[in-house]
Amino acid sequence: MKSLENKVAFITGGSKGIGFGVAKSLLDLGMRVAITSRSMENAKNAAAKLGSKDKVMPLEADVRDYESQQKAVDSLIQEWGQMDVLIANAGIGHFGNIDELSVKQWQETLDTNLSGVFYSIKSSLEPLKKSKGYVITISSLAGTNFFSGGAAYNASKFGVTGFTQAVMLDLRDKGIKVSTIMPGSVATYFNDHTPTEEDAWKIQPQDIGELVVDLLKINPRTLPSKIEVRPSQPPKK
To answer: Is position 66 annotated as part of the catalytic site?
Structure first.
C-alpha cells in the first residue's frame, strides 16, 4: 500500500496479545483500527490504552458466530466507510491427550481458530474488494509441526494455514493480497498465561506488529504468502 495514513484495519481479538500489538503498530503509522473482543468492556479498555480516540473503534464480536462478525463489519463500514486490512487473529488453545480432550474443547478450538477465520474473511469480502485490501491471518508454527497433546490445536492451525493459502489463490485476481503469519512462542495471555520477565526470550506482540507493517509496505508486486517466525534464541532444553 502506497500510503497507510487513515487506512482502516479490522483486527479480531484485538483487545490483548498479538492483536493489541498489531493495533498499536498500525496506529503509530496513522492508520485507524477497529478491535474486536467477545467482551465490549474489554474492547473499550483496550481502546483506552491505545489512545487516539478518533482512530480506535472498539467492537463486540464473537468470531465463532458469522452473524456477529457481519454485524461488527457493518458497524465499521457504517462509521468509517471502508476496510483496507483484515487481521484475522482471534484464537484459543485447548491442549491435552486425545484420551482427555473433550468434544466441547475440540469444537470450541475448531470453531474459534478455523471457522472464525473463515467467518472473518467471508464477512469482510465486499469492502476488501472495493479497497483492494490485504488479509493477514495469524496461524502458528503448530500449523505445520504437530506435537503430542496438540490434536485440536494442530488441526485448527494446519487448517488455517491451508485455508489461507487457498484463499490467497482465490482472491489475488481481485486485487486482494492474502498472507498468513505463523509465530512460534509469543509472550501473550494465550491459554490463560500471564506474560512475565521470564518471557523476554519469546516473540513479543509488537514484533508481530512490525511484521504486519512490513507486509503492508512491501511493493504490491510481491506477496510473502506464508511466513514462519520464531524466537531467535530460545532457552536450551
So the answer is: no
- At the topology level of CATH, where does 8-229 sit? Rossmann fold (3.40.50)
Q: Which of 66, 119, 153, 189 is catalytic?
A: 153
At 130-176, the pLDDT tens digits run 999 999 999 999 999 999 999 999 999 999 999 999 999 999 999 99
Report the chain's C-alpha Rg in angstroms.
Answer: 17
Q: Indicate the pairing of strand 8-11 with strand 134-138.
A: unpaired
The C-alpha atoms of residue 87 and residue 19 are separated, in whole angstroms, by 8
Predicted TM-score (pTM) of the model is 0.95
Q: Is residue 141 within 8 Å of 230, Cβ to Cβ?
A: yes
Per-position b or e across 121-140, b if 16+ CB within 10 A of its CB: bebbbebbeebebbbbbbbb
Those residues with Cβ within 8 angstroms of residue 123's Cβ, 6 or more apart along the chain or in another chain: 66, 69, 70, 72, 73
